[in-house]
Amino acid sequence: MMNDKCAAGTGRFLEVMALSLGIPLEEIPILGLNPKNRIKISSMCTVFAESEVVSLKNAGADPSDLSYAVHLSVAERVSALVHRLGLRENIVFTGGVAKNPLIVKLLEELLGQKILVPPMITAALGCTLV
């Protein structure tokens, strides 16, 4: 199952949010690991979420809180897709976003189980099973 409606819940969403925060993409998950306040981003659309993040940033929100909120937003969208598909045991997370430790941590919390992240991107794994 894929989120095919917009970029929200994808790596591109994280790229846009990192740019809007002025933080390198590689650093944004580390920054969000220890938020001071657990704020939420309410917008589901990447464009509106970016505007919300910029507004929160300009209002003085802590960058660690914003980073956490961005990651939580992605994790909640992915978790909703997983629940719609049907939660199973032995979840494997692959792709570029799987290398993001905060997304993995939040998904494990939301799904209530450990997630297997292969050491390399294994996009063609499903083809081998057919």
Task: Give a short overview.
By secondary structure, this protein is mainly α. It contains six helices and two strands. It has a single domain, classed as Nucleotidyltransferase, domain 5 (2-Layer Sandwich).
Could you explain the architecture of this structure?
This protein is mainly alpha-helical and 130 residues long. It has one domain (11-129): Nucleotidyltransferase, domain 5. The chain has 6 helices and 2 strands; from the N terminus they run H-H-H-H-E-H-E-H. The chain has a two-stranded parallel ribbon. Helix 5 links the parallel strand 1 (91-92) and strand 2 (115-116). The protein is globular. It starts with 10 loop residues before the first helix and ends with a helix.
Question: Whole-number radius of gyration?
Answer: 15 Å
**Sheet with most strands: strand arrangement:** 1-2
Largest sheet: 2 strands, parallel
Tell me the domain tally.
1
Shape: globular
The span between the termini is 17 Å
Overall CATH architecture: 2-Layer Sandwich
Poorly predicted regions: none
Task: Please indicate the percent range of residues in DSSP E strands (runs of 2 or more).
Answer: under 5%
What is the CATH third-level topology name? Nucleotidyltransferase, domain 5
- Name given to the CATH homologous superfamily: ATPase, nucleotide binding domain
Number of helices: 6
Number of strands: 2
Q: Write the element-wise H/E pattern from the N-terminal end onward.
A: HHHHEHEH
Mean pLDDT: 86
The helical percent reads: 40-55%
The secondary-structure class comes to mainly alpha
- CATH class annotation: Alpha Beta
